[in-house]
Amino acid sequence: MKKRFGWFLAIIVALIMTVVPLGQTQHAQAADNSLEQIQKKGVLVMGTSPDYPPYEFQATVNGKSKIVGMDVQIGKQVAKDLGVKLKIKSMSFDSLLVALQTGKVDMIISGMNPTPSRRKNVDFTHVYYQGGYDIVINKTDKGKYKNKNSFKNGTLGAQTGTTQYNAVKNQTTAKAKGMTSQSDLILALQSHKVDGVAMEKPSAEAYVANNKSLVAIPSDFNMSSSATSSAIAFRKGSTSLVNKVNKTVDRIKKQNLVKKQYLPAAGKYLKTNTVNTSMGHYWKAFATGIEYTLIITVCSVFFGFIIGILLALARMAKGNPLKTAIRWLATAYVEFIRGTPMMVQVMFVYFGLGLFVNLPALTSGIIAISLNSGAYVAEYIRGGINSVDVGQTEAARSLGMSNGETMRYVVLPQALKNIWPSLGNEFITLIKDSSIVSIIGVTELIYQSNIVRSDTYRGVAPIVVIMVLYFILTFTASRILNYFERRMQHD
What we know:
Elements: H1 7-19, H2 23-30, H3 34-41, E1 43-48, E2 51-52, E3 56-61, E4 64-68, H4 70-82, E5 85-90, H5 93-101, E6 107-108, H6 116-119, E7 122-124, E8 129-130, E9 133-138, E10 155-159, H7 163-171, E11 175-179, H8 182-190, E12 196-200, H9 201-209, E13 214-218, E14 229-230, E15 233-235, H10 239-254, H11 257-273, H12 283-315, H13 321-338, H14 342-352, H15 361-387, H16 390-398, H17 403-433, H18 445-456, H19 460-490
Parallel strand pairs: 1-5, 1-6, 10-11, 10-12
Antiparallel strand pairs: 2-3, 3-4, 6-15, 7-15, 8-14, 9-12, 9-13
Helix pairs in contact: 1-14, 3-10, 4-10, 4-11, 12-13, 12-15, 12-17, 12-18, 13-15, 14-15, 15-17, 16-17, 17-19, 18-19
Keywords: Amino-acid transport, Cell membrane, Membrane, Signal, Transmembrane, Transmembrane helix, Transport
Organism: Lactiplantibacillus plantarum WJL
Membrane topology: Multi-pass membrane protein
């Protein structure tokens, strides 16, 4: 099944829980009005990670990309029975449990297995699908591998943190190779970085059906029923909502709708995806990715520069105890931001602050990257200010300028000229670093390339396209910045 709630996100949750009162969960358990809240709101937000065909994946329908799959059909049926509209929110699988616990989504339907460890944090419905595992190999190796025992001294790939990854480690003598997405694993298989990829039977069948160079063999893993089943996850204490949805799940199982309707429908979308897999066919997806990448970069540079100026001036404050305190706070902020990964900051802004203010993913990404950029820009500006000869300040003061006027009209313009190359480098870096916000579902270039890879089952081509696009963006920005730098030097 999909990834477990890994140690990395456990740190995020722990950090969030230190800020948010734990009484929220206790209150939910004491007064369960989860069903009433959803029906009153009129919208059921479903969280999913659309990179897991045929459970959930992206497909091009009437020229537009949409999320489809058997899990989406189940979500629609659940919403219909509740009498509300279904809204699908896409994000990385690792972010789903945090999103559920922090109220970003109302339920998770994403091929998630109800393991005991997950049951401690969320409530699950009855199982709606019971699957199994296969191993996908290259067709040329069909005579070489028969099951998990055939990979002695070989390399088996699987999604990191999943039950199949643990099975590879514990039930085979093969070397386990973990990656974060199945599309990456299939790419590794085709480039002979791994000898086989362990995955669920429906996903294995989907990849094999759409790629003639691959075949699936039995895994023969010894797995528990909970490790091969799928259920819907809700926030802890949502008893009334879970009981209501269980009626839908039980009817789906009784009528065998997954195998009779939902899987065949998903198969049709999979075939549609492979009709035209040229990169030109997906130019709209890449154009959308460029649009959001530029929006994030430009906004982050603008706000980051303002934050950087304020932090730089604060770090240089001297005098009374208040100014000293401001300097220490600014220094602590800069050191903390520079000492923590941007990915953690993005997730904390989206999930942590989202507990108090329901920020959209794009806004959260811009805020996080701006705050991060501001810390680095502050050091550039501080260095630029220090590089201005002290005689310039003395001359301005002798002409009757105040400290503020001296800084604004004399020091900062010269400092900006000195640090322009560093600021340009920061702008170029932000174009590339904007890809981090894909983890919270912002549709920038990396996110769109994953959609194309999911649509087409082509691993290399979308990567080549976004490499070229990133180069065009950075090269163009570099030429523009160099033009203004020459103008400054000429002036």
